[in-house]
Protein 1
Amino acid sequence: MKHSIWSAVCVAIGISIAGLFVFLGLVKNADKDRFVTVKGLSTRTVEADHAIWPLCFSLTGNDLQSLYSESERVSQEIRTMLKARGFRDEDLQVGNITVENKWDNYTYGVRPEYKYQLNASVIVSTDSVMLVVRNNGCASELLNRGIIVNTSEWQLEYQYNGLPELKPEMIEEATKNARAVAQKFANDAECNLGSIVRASQGQFSVESDPFQPWLKHVRVVTTVDYKLD
C-alpha cells in the first residue's frame, strides 16, 4: 500500500514539473512573439544628371546619293545651331540612318511620288541637363531654316545616375523613421522598445515629375520588426 502511495506521489510530482516546464515555455514563447512591425519612409527630389535628346528628321526623294548628301547638310545645320546654343562637340552624335523603299509596299494602287524615305537624327547626350531644358523648344528655329525635326517629349530622356551614392543615407533615414513609429507604439502600449528582430529594405523607386521631367522623385520604404519588452 505504501509503495502504491509513493508511486502516485512520484507521478504527481512528475506531472507538476512537466506542467511547470510547459508553462515556462509558453511564457518564453509569448515574450518572444511580442513584437511590432513598422514601416519607415525616406524620399528625395533630385535633378537628373544626364539627358539624351534625339532630334529626328526625314527626307524623301528618288535618288539615294542626293538624299545622303542632303542628310549630311541637315545634320551639320542642326549641329551648328546646337553649338551656337552652348552644346559642345562631344555632346553631339549622328544617329543611325535608315532608308525605306516606298515603292515596295503601297496601298490603294497609288504609287508614292518619291521612292525613298531617309530617316536620320542628331542625338544630344550630355550632362548639361538644364541646357537641354532651356533649348527643348528650338524646333521653331530649325523650321525657319526649312528643317522639320521631331522632338517629341517621349523621345527626350532625363536620367539620374546618382542612386548608389544616395542609398546609404536614405536607408538610414527610413530606418530612423521606422524606429520613431515603433517607439510611439511602445509608449502607447506602456512597454519598452527592444532590439530589431528582422528588417527588410524595399525597392528604390525613381519617378519623373509629371510637369518637370528633369526632376526625379526617389523613394524607399523599409519594414522593421522590433521586440517589445
Protein 2
Amino acid sequence: MLQPLLINRSDFDNYLRISSNTKLEKLNVYIFQSQDIELRAVLGDEEYEEMMKLFSLSYEIEAITVEATTQIETKQPHGYNVGDFVELSGLTGTVETLNNKRYRIADIIDTTNFTIDEETTSLVYAESGLVYRGLEARYEELCSKPFFRAFLVFASYVRYLGSNALHDTNSGTVEKILEQSQRPSNMKMGAYINANEQNRDEYKERLVHYLIENKQTYKFFADSIQENDLDHQPRIIAVRPKPEYRRQFDFNISRRR
C-alpha cells in the first residue's frame, strides 16, 4: 500500500525559494524517505507506526472529475458513507492544492465513486494520488505544527540536493549538465547543503522538545527514550563535522552513501 505524504509543495514554498518548474512528483520520493527514515528516527518505531496505521485504509485514486462538487474515483472499493471525512495526498496537476486537507463526502455514486464538498472547476488533475480517512486528532495536531512541517521540508530538500543532478541510465549513473547554467563547486555546494542541514536540525530540535513536553500524549515516544533524556535539556540532536573537514569530500557522491 502506498503511503500518503505529510507535506506538499506549498510547504516547500513557505520555507525555500525553489524553481516553480520543480514539480511535486520530483520531490515525492525524498519526502517519503524523510518520513520513513528521519521522522521515524525521531518518533521511534512504535509511535511512527501508530501515527501511520490509518493510512493502511487508503485507496489509490483512478481519476478526479473537476466540477462544482468534485468527483473522485478509486481503484478499489472505498467503503465510505455520506458525511465521512477524508483527506487527499499525492495529487499532481493544479489539484495538488487539495493535498493534506480534510473534506466531507457529499454523495456516494457507487462502490468506487463519490463526491466531496469542494469546487474545482478551475483546476486540472494530472495523475496519481491517495484518499484516506486521516490521522487521529493528536497526530493531526502534531502534523499541523510549523516546526514539524519545516523539519520534513528541510530533511527532504537535503536529500533532493544530494542527488537531483544524478540520473541512472543504461550505461550507468550520469550527471546532468545544463547548457545555460553551471553547477556550483563542491565547496559552495557543501556550504549550501550544510546550511540546509542546520535548518533541518534546528526544526528537529523544536519537534523533539514539543514531544518531550507532551510525552503524556505521545506515550510510545516517551517509552522509546530513557527517562533521564526527558529530564535534561538541551539534548544533542546532531553532531556536524567542521566545514574544513566537510570540504574534503565530493558532496554529489558522498550524500548518496
